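Sequence in, structure out. Go.
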Amino acid sequence: MKFPGSVLVSLVLFLSETTAALCLSAAYRAAGDPMWHWLTLLCALLPCVLVQLSLVFIHRDVTRDRPLVLLLHLLQLGPLVRCVEAFYIYYHAGRIEDPYVSITKKWQVPKDGYSEEIEKEVGQAERKLRTHRSAFSRASVIQAFLGSAPQLTLQLYICVMRQEITAARSIFMLLSLLSIVYGALRCNILAIKIKYDDYDISVKPAAYLCIFLWRSFEIATRVIVLVLFSSVLRIWIFPVAMANFFGFYFFPWILFWRSKSPFPENIEKEFSRVGTTIVLCLLTFLYAGINMFCWSAVQVELSDPDLISKSQNWYQMTMFYTLRFMENAFLLLMWYLYKTDIYMYVCTPLLFLRMLLSYCMAIFFMLVFYQFCHPCKKLFSSSITEALLSCFKFLFFMRKTPKSAVLRDEAAVKTAENTDEAGSSSKTIDSQKGYPHQSASSNA
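Output:
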C-alpha cells in the first residue's frame, strides 16, 4: 500500500495558502485598503467552500449518517479530518484483516511488444485510501485554478501598481504558484489514469520533473502577461478574460449539442435532472478556469458516460498552444505600445522577449514529456512530433497556392498520361505492404 503523500502535500498547501491569505487580507484592512482586503478574502474563501463540497460529494457523506463530519466540513475543517482519516487507515491497514478482498486485473504497459495481465488483491482499506487520494487530487485542482490562480494574479497586480514587493506578499505569491503547479500536475496524472484505466501505470521522477517545469513556465508566463496587460489597459482585460472563460465554458456544451447524445443521467442515482445539470455546469466551470491559465490535459466530453474524453487529441493540443502563444504575443504587444510611467525603469523589450521565451520553454518541456517521459508513450498510435509535423504540413498546404494556371494544366495532362503507370505501381506497392504483415504474424 502506497504512502498517502499526495494527501499530505495537498493539505499542507491548502492550509498554508489559506492562512497566508487571511493574514494578508487582515494586513490590507489594517492599512486602509478595503478593496484589496475584500478581493483577497473572496479569492481565499470561495475555493475553500468548493473544496469542502467536492470532498463531501466524493465521499458520499450526505447519504451516510455522519453528522460530525458534515459539521467539520461546515467549519472548513474537512481536509484536516480527511487527512487524519487517511493516515489512520494507512497505519492500521496491516493490523486488522480485511473481511472482503477483491481482485483487480490490470495490463502492463507493453515492453518489447508484449503485455501481461496482472492480478492484484485489493482490500477494503486500500479502496478507502484510493478514494481519499482521488478526493484530494480533485480538491487540489479546484483549489489551484479557482482560488490560487486568481489570487496570484491579484497579488501580482497589486505589486505592479504599488511598485513594491513586500515579504508577506512574495511568500504568499510563491505559495499560490506552487499550489497552481501542483494542481496542474495532479490534473496531468488524473488524465493519464483516466485514459489508461486498464493499465498498471507507474510515473517516474523524470516525468514529474518535466511536468513541473512545463507547468511552472506556462502558468507563470500566463499570469505575468495578464497582469502586464491589465496594468495599462484595465477596461480591456475584462473582455479578454470573459472571451477566454466563456469560450472554454461553452465548448463542451456545443460539442454535446452537436453530437445529439442523450442527457447524461448516470452521475449519481440520487440526483435529479436539475442536480445533474448543476454538477455538469460546475464541471465545465472548472474546465474553463483551468484553460484560462494552462492546458487542461483532461478534456470534458459530456456525451461520454465518464464525462472525460479518453482519446489523445494532438491536433486540439496543437491548436490550443498555437492560439495561446499568439494571444500572449498580442497582449504583450498591446502592453508594450501603451505602457505607462510605472515601467520607466524596466527594460520593456527584454521583458517582452523573456515572456515569449518562457512560453517557448513551457512548450519545449511539454514535448519532452510526451516524447520521452510519458508512462504510456508506447500506447500512442502516433507520437506528438509526428502529429505536429502533420499539423504544420496541413497548414502549409492550405496556404500554398498554385503559381499559374499553366502548371495546373500540365499536371492534369501528366495525370491523364500516367493513369496506367499509377495502376501498375499501386499493385506493386500493395504487394510490398503485404510482407511486413506476414513477418509480423509469423513473429507473433
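Check: Strands lie at 101-108, 117-123, 199-200. The first strand starts at residue 101 and ends at 108.
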